[in-house]
Amino acid sequence: MRRSRRKSESCFICLGILLAVFALLNRTNGAAVQETGISAAGIIAGEGMQRLGRDDRERPQIALTFDDGPDPEYTGKLLDGLKERGVKVSFFLLGKSIEGNEDIVKRMHREGHLIGNHTYNHVRLDRASDAAAREEILKTNNRIYEITGEYPVYMRPPYGAWKKDTEFCVEMIPVFWTIDTLDWKTQNVQDVLQRARKNIKNGSVILMHDEYETTVEAALALVDEFTEQGWEFVTVDRLILP
Ligand SMILES: [Zn+2]
C-alpha cells in the first residue's frame, strides 16, 4: 500500500512538471498547434498528460490501432501489407490469443510496430476488482515480455472502460481512440473507409480489429489513400512524444 501511495505521489509530481513545461512552451506556440497537441495527448493518456515539445511535424499524423489480436489468419496478411508500404501501427493484444501465435507477435516487434496490452480475457476493467484487473494486465504484459523482451507501456482497455483511481492506472498508459470504424460490426470495406474518411484529422487514433479480411483490406486502402495525400501513419507513442 505504501509503495502504491508513493507511486501515485510521484505520478502527480511528474504530471505537474509536464504541465508546467507545457505551459512554458505554449507561450511561443500558435493556438492551432496547442489545440492539436492537447487533443492528441488527451486521447492517449487522458486529461493529465500533455504533448511536449514544439509541434513541428511537417505532415499530419494518424495512428491505426488494432485490438483483439493476434489472429492466426489475418494479422499476418495485415503485416505483409504494412511491410510493403513501410507503415507502422499499434497492436493491442489479448493475452489469451497469444498462445500459438508467438511468431506473429515476434514479427510485429521485429518490424517496428507498437505492441500494447488489451487484457488477458477481454474483461471490463472498471467492473473487475483491483486484484483481478492487475492480474489481467500483468499476465498479458508478461506473455508479451517473454516473446519480445520488451515490457508494454501502453494499453487499450476493452470497451474503453478504465478506472483512473485504481492502483494499476499508474503503471500503464491507457490509449483510447477518436474514430471507431465499427469494422467488427459491418465487416464492410467501404463502410469502414467512409467512417474513417469522414472523421480523420491530425492526431486521429483509429480503432480497428485485425481479425477480419475486410479490416485488412480497408486498413491498407486507407494507408494508400492518405499516404498519397501527404499524411503520415505513426504508432500511438509518436502522437505524444516530442
Ligand atoms: Zn477488444
Summarize the structure.
The protein has helices at about 1-25, 30-45, 75-85, 95-100, 100-110, 130-150, 185, 190-200, 215-230, 235-240, and strands at about 60-70, 90-95, 115, 155, 175, 180, 205-210, 230-235. By secondary structure, the protein is α/β, with parallel strands linked by helices.
Ligand set:
zinc ion
CATH superfamily of the largest domain: Glycoside hydrolase/deacetylase
Roughly how much helix do the residues carry, as a percent range?
Answer: 40-55%
Q: By helix and strand content, what is the structural category?
A: alpha/beta
Shape: globular
Give Rg in angstroms. 18 Å
3D architecture notes:
It is a single chain. The chain is of the alpha/beta class and 242 residues long. The chain has two domains: 44 residues; 180 residues, Glycoside hydrolase/deacetylase (TIM Barrel, Alpha-Beta Barrel), CATH 3.20.20. It contains ten helices and eight strands. Strands 1, 2, 3, 6, 7 and 8 form a six-stranded parallel beta sheet that branches. A two-stranded parallel sheet has the order 4-5. The radius of gyration is 18 Å and the shape is globular. The protein binds zinc ion. Zinc ion binds next to strand 1. The site of zinc ion (ZN) has 5 residues, from strand 1.
